Amino acid sequence: MPRSKNKVASRERRRRILKLAKGYWGERSNVWTIAKNHIEKGLSHAYRDRRLKKRNFRRLWIVRINAAARINGTTYSRLIDALNKKGLVINRKVLAEIAMHEPDVFKMIVEHVNG
Questions:
Q1: Do 100 and 64 meet the contact criterion of CB atoms below 8 Å apart?
Q2: Domain presence at residue 3
Q3: What is the total count of domains within the chain?
């Protein structure tokens, strides 16, 4: 059986990987086998961390809301419970922004749900 080569496809495959490796240090940027390994690892980290980023931001928002809630005499869990019982739908991202940048408005929200 004759040996088959497809130089066009293999060259394109290598070029694509080496283009992604641009900016890497040393052999990681210009040696095909090393670059391929580091690109695969980098892409797997990127996939994983796109999901972790959502968790990390949610944790940050909760910490900020809790800190602001404690300044206003309640806790995070009591505040969220009171918001749900009043039927106020404010997501944690917006609530954290209000707590950081508009403390007076946040205090009004706390008084409204607890009062």
A1: yes
A2: no
A3: 1
Domain range for 16: 8-114
Domain membership of residue 2 (yes or no) is no
Distance in angstroms (rounded) separating the CA atoms of residues 58 and 93: 8
> Both tokens of residue 74?
């309640």
DSSP state of 97: H
In tens, the pLDDT along 16-27 reads 999 999 998 999
C-beta atoms surrounding 90 within 10 Å: 12
CB atoms within 10 A of CB 51: 9
- CB–CB of 79/43 below 8 Å? no
pTM score of the predicted model:
0.76
User: Rounded to an integer, what distance in angstroms lies between the CA atom of residue 72 and that of residue 84?
Assistant: 18
| Structure letter (DSSP) for residue 46 | H
